[in-house]
Every structure is written in structure tokens, then in C-alpha cells.
Design goal:
Length: 325
């Protein structure tokens, strides 16, 4: 097993970067990914219309659903890889690889409004989500619609940094439920980031680690806190067949680790703000400092004392897009 892992490391670290320099986002790749997004968003719209499965865990049979809710309230993060089908067939994306993941967590002791306030504080995402977000800036806000800039850092064995812009919209459903949609509008990989010779590589003509990134959040306040659900769709270059057996498992693990860090960072930040707010409103506690409360610091491994990040071993799910009547 160690020899296989070493072979994977060497293939990815030495062979892939050399070939990755010639990656190009082709029109057929973009069109296939757009079709995948269209069908996936169609399934999401149907779920929201039906109203029975606002959260992903609601779609499971009652015994498993109750078990999942218990594990979420115990602090676990549930992450699962998904795949959308078209007429029960896989959607082929030529020269591209779709990363489709679902992650759910629970933050106790906070309100829906507190969650939305944190997530819409885009100027401070670089503080909340470092090291994955190196810089952040709100470019424009119009009601529940936002245009934002993020400098993203992607690190496995190789580090890649991107300038990215997103259109984000929030859709309140009622007092306890809101969902949002974020589409990348521009992603440019950086060469020599934070150096005097920093420059953007031509868009769509880079190493192909990240060409598109869409995020779909759902928030529901109940059970004394807020459930956070994030469904992520990303597009990267495909891997040469010769190395696919080694590299694909690593590429598929990167979104899993990223989503775990993202939800953990959100939970830790909300917990800190909740504790700080409680100190500010309690006349008995104003003289004290928040350092007396156990709120674990952020770490790159997302292992926070007092905040379990266990990931449940759920099998991959295949999702069929709703059929047109």
C-alpha cells in the first residue's frame, strides 16, 4: 500500500504538472458542464417546490434520517460525493472532470440571521476562511444579490492560487429557511502570486485545476441552532488515462477536505461570535474575557478540540435529473 501511495505522489507531483501547462478549456467541455449544471439545478428547483426535502438528510428513510440528525447535532460533518444523471445515463464532459459534493453540518446556539450576517460579510472572508481564501472583497451589493472577489488557494501536493469573481444570490423562503446560489463568473490562475512578477495566466489556458466553481447553500433554523448545507459543483481538467487510476482518487479527495474545512471554519467563527455576543449582553459576564470559553482555533487539518469533524462513511449517490413532462 505504501508503494502505491508513493507512486501516486510521484506521478502527481512530477508528471502531471509538466503536462498540465498545456491544459485548455474547450467549448465542448464548457457546454457539457453547463448541461450538468442545468440538470442539477433543475433537481434542486424541484426539491424546493416539493418542500419535503429542503435538507438533503430529509430524503432518507426515517430510521437513517433520525440517525443522521443525531450525528449532526453531535457535531459531525456529513460529506458525500454526488453525480447527476441525464435519462439514467452519465453525462460525459470531454476533457473535463466534474466535482460534485454535498456537505451538511449543524451549528448550535445561533440564529439564521447570525449565519447570513457572517456569510454576507464578504470583506472578511479572508479572515474566516484562511488559508483557502487569501483575499476577499465585496464588489457590489443590490438587495439579496452580491458580486464578490476572492483570491483562492488550492493545495494538495501542488499549490495553485486563483483570482475569482462570483455572482451570489440569496432566496429567503420563510423565517427559518433560506437558500443561496453562487456562480463563478471569472477564474484566473496566478503565476508567481504575491511576487513582483505576479501575473494572471490566460483564462481557460492554465494548468486546469479549477475552471468553474458553483456553490449552493441551504440554511434552516431548528433544534436550537442552524443546519448548514452546501452543495458544490466544480470543473477541472481531466487526467491522462495513464495516470487516472493514481491521480483521480487524490483529485476527488480535495473537494472533500475543502468542504470539511469550509464548514468547520464557518461553525468556529459563528461560535466565537455567539459567545462574544452573549458576553456583551450578559451583565454578569461583561467583566470576563472570552478566553475562558473553550472555542477551538482554526487549523489547516480542521481538527478542532470541542468541535468534531468526523465524516460519516456514506456511499456515493447517483441523482437522476427530473424528467420533463
Amino acid at each position: 500500500m505504501r508503494k502505491v501511495m508513493l507512486a501516486g505522489f510521484l506521478a502527481f507531483a512530477y508528471v502531471l504538472p509538466e503536462s498540465a501547462g498545456a491544459a485548455e478549456l474547450k467549448q465542448e467541455t464548457t457546454e457539457a458542464f453547463n448541461q450538468y449544471v442545468l440538470l442539477t439545478e433543475g433537481r434542486m428547483a424541484q426539491e424546493l417546490r416539493d418542500g419535503h426535502t429542503f435538507l438533503w438528510v430529509d430524503g432518507f428513510p426515517e430510521p437513517q434520517r433520525n440517525r443522521l440528525y443525531t450525528q449532526l447535532r453531535d457535531g459531525e460533518i456529513v460529506i458525500e460525493r454526488l453525480e447527476t444523471l441525464e435519462k439514467e445515463k452519465r453525462i460525459k464532459v470531454p476533457n473535463g472532470l466534474v466535482h460534485h459534493w454535498m456537505a451538511v453540518s449543524f451549528v448550535p446556539g445561533v440564529t439564521l440571521q447570525q449565519v447570513l450576517t457572517l456569510l454576507q460579510d464578504y470583506d472578511h472572508h479572508e479572515d474566516i476562511y484562511k488559508p483557502d481564501v487569501l483575499r476577499s472583497r465585496l464588489l457590489n451589493a443590490d438587495g439579496n444579490c452580491f458580486k464578490i472577489y476572492l483570491r483562492l488557494r488550492q493545495k494538495a501536493i501542488i499549490t495553485a492560487v486563483f483570482n475569482a469573481e462570483f455572482d451570489v444570490s440569496y432566496f429567503p423562503l420563510d423565517e427559518s429557511r433560506t437558500h443561496s446560489r453562487s456562480h463563478s463568473t471569472r477564474i484566473a490562475e496566478l503565476e508567481n502570486p504575491d511576487r513582483s512578477d505576479e501575473r494572471e495566466k490566460p483564462i481557460g489556458k492554465d494548468r486546469g485545476f479549477l475552471w468553474r466553481l458553483n456553490s449552493y447553500w441551504r440554511f434552516q433554523e431548528k433544534d436550537g441552532g442552524v443546519y448548514l448545507q452546501l452543495e458544490s459543483l466544480a470543473l477541472s481538467r481531466s487526467v491522462p488515462v495513464l495516470f487516472a487510476w493514481v491521480v483521480n482518487p487524490l483529485l476527488k479527495s480535495i473537494p472533500r477536505e475543502y468542504l470539511s474545512r469550509l464548514l468547520t471554519s464557518t461553525r468556529v467563527s459563528l461560535t466565537k461570535k455567539s459567545v462574544a455576543a452573549w458576553f456583551g449582553t450578559s451583565p454578569l459576564m461583561k467583566p470576563l474575557s472570552t478566553r475562558f470559553f473553550l472555542v477551538a482555533p482554526y487549523s489547516e487539518t480542521a481538527q478542532n478540540e470541542g468541535h468534531s469533524t468526523a465524516i460519516l462513511p456514506i456511499q456515493e449517490r447517483i441523482l437522476c435529473a427530473p424528467q420533463k413532462s
